Every structure is written in structure tokens, then in C-alpha cells.
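Hi R.,

Here are the chain sequences for the assembly we discussed:
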Amino acid sequence: MIPFFALLKINQPCNNAVIPYMKASESTFRNCLYFTANALARKVEKMAIESWKSVGLSPSHGYLLMLVNKEPGLQPGCIADNLQLTPSTVTRLIEKLEAMKLVVRTSGGKATNVYPTPVGKKLLPQLKQCVDDFNRSYSNFIGKEECSRMVENMHKLADKMT
Amino acid sequence: MIPFFALLKINQPCNNAVIPYMKASESTFRNCLYFTANALARKVEKMAIESWKSVGLSPSHGYLLMLVNKEPGLQPGCIADNLQLTPSTVTRLIEKLEAMKLVVRTSGGKATNVYPTPVGKKLLPQLKQCVDDFNRSYSNFIGKEECSRMVENMHKLADKMT
DNA sequence: CCGTTTCTATTGTATATACAATTATTAATA
DNA sequence: TATTAATAATTGTATATACAATAGAAACGG
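And here is the predicted structure of the full complex:
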């Protein structure tokens, strides 16, 4: 199909800064979806981590906490669906938030329900602030509209990938 | 800016399939770049892992091996730039490939050079096959053109994100 | 009403990744 | 030339994530 390997071209020179100074779009693998999607995700992740630092949570933990704030008692399986993570990962995220006294689990039968604690509830405005900060931080680079379109397209692509 | 939290809407029902049956585009967080970029990357990753299974390598390891096949003696720092990974991550990837006898490291001065072994070289056609398989697997869902455009846009976005 | 299947959640284990600190080498400067 | 700074790579440690196996509860069929 695509003569992928023919596209390889090593871009000299390379320095070894901890933060790669080379743009992903200048990489040998710039045409590769695998490479591009991952590089973008890592970049976005790093930006998000920065935004969420103020509440001492990783973005995943932050989003989970927002979710149970919005829908107290939500079950792990449902959380997994909404975050597009596996149930085991969600269990681990919840464990940490529980250790931080931000959520509690109640176990009734085979179902588990997750609720925010008072402290977890009180954090909600700050959580929203983090999301706002994050949105603003990339809105500086690309317009809000362009970003929406991008997100739209990414979903289209992901949806088609069974 | 974006009234993000206002968009939250829990989509019932949720089941707990190991592979989330809910589409990312149906999630509460569908409008969020962080969420979307990560969900897409994970999906692409999973697809890539499938394609690379035949050579017993993860995609990252496979791409690294392709890189040093193309440019024998390439240095870790340069590899890191091309893969958009940190040097420490690259060291770890190389360690594994070395344990598998697919590459060797020679250390002269402060520089390290990475070379494919004969076995590693012989694997090249299979590596290309993996890339082809991967490309074909998503070309089934989205056209090759649409994908190129998508990749292009993702770079544009990433480049602007300092 | 008992046994089997299905479903939810958790646990054990493994992985790729990153950051911070460290080592070893080279370059620069006073 | 001697000391200092910069660079390249590695190591220690931590994290988020996933898969496979398991436990416990509910549903269901005979």
C-alpha cells in the first residue's frame, strides 16, 4: 500500500535535550498515524498535567472526580465507559482517590458505587478551573473553532476503527 | 471560556465489557481534547500492537529497529528525537532489543552507537510488512487520503503547542 | 431449589513511559 | 593548563495503563 519505509529520512542534527527539540512533524515517522497519534497524545497529556498540578491530581484522576461529582454513586464500569479506560484501570484510579479521601466506595451486592466525599465535592470549582486553564492554554495556539473541528475529526476516525 | 462542565451528560446504560462498548464520541467528555487525543491514541496503539504481534515486538520497539536498520550507528539521542520519546525511554527500548539480540550498542566516548545485528537486519522485510498491515488495517475504515489529511492536521496542532 | 452461566469488580502481574539524579566524556573559558 | 560548564547516556524510581485470572453476586433454566 503505502511505501512507508521509502519515506524514511533521518533529520540531522540531533541534540539530546530532555524535551525533544525536534518537532514531531520533522520526524522520520511523520507520516505514520501510530507515531503521530501517540506524539500528539503525549504532548496534550503533558499540557494537561501542568493544568491539573494545582489540585495535585493527574488529569485522569481529575476527570474521574468530576464525573462522580456530577453523578454521585456512579459505578466503576460506567466510569470506565465514560473515560474509555478498562475497569481495572478505573479501580486503580479510584483506589488512589479513596486514599486521598476524595471519594468513597460502597459495595452492595456485585455493584459498587462511588461517591465524592465532602472534601471531594468542595474541590469541584477548582477542578472546573483546571479544565478552563487547560482549554485556555491550547486555545492560545489554535483557535477554539479549529480545535472543535479537530476533536470532531478525531472522533470520526476513532469511531470507524471498530 | 468553554463551559465544559455544562456539557456533562451521563449516557446510560453502561455495561462492563472489557473493551468499552461505548464509543468515545458518546462519552461525557467527548468535547475534551485531552480525552479525545488519549482515547484515539489508545485505539491506534491497540491496532498497532495487533499488527506487530507477528514479529513479537511492540510498535515502539519495531519502529526503533526500523530506524537503526535504515541508519546503522544512530545514537540514542537522535532516536529519541525521531520517536519523540525521552532518552531514558529509548535506553529502555534499546535494552530490550539488545536482550533479544536484535541490536548491539558500542560505546565510544560519551556517544553510543546502535547497530542492528544480522538477525535484526534479516527482520527488516517483516517489519515493513507489519507497517503495511497496520496501514491497511485502518485504511479499511478511513480512506488513505482522509488519513493523510488527519495526520497533517494533528501535526499542525502539535506543532503549535510549543 | 440447585447448578450453571453471566456480570461486576478487583487483584496479580507486566509494560511503556517519564522525571530526577548520576556518570562519563568533551568543550569552553579564565 | 586547570577548572568549569555542557552534553550524552544511563539508572533509580514512579506512574498510568492493560490483560488475564479470580471472587462474589445475580440471573436463569431445568
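Chain B is about 55% helix and 5% strand. The longest strand of chain B covers residues 103-108.

Let me know if anything looks off.

Best,
T.
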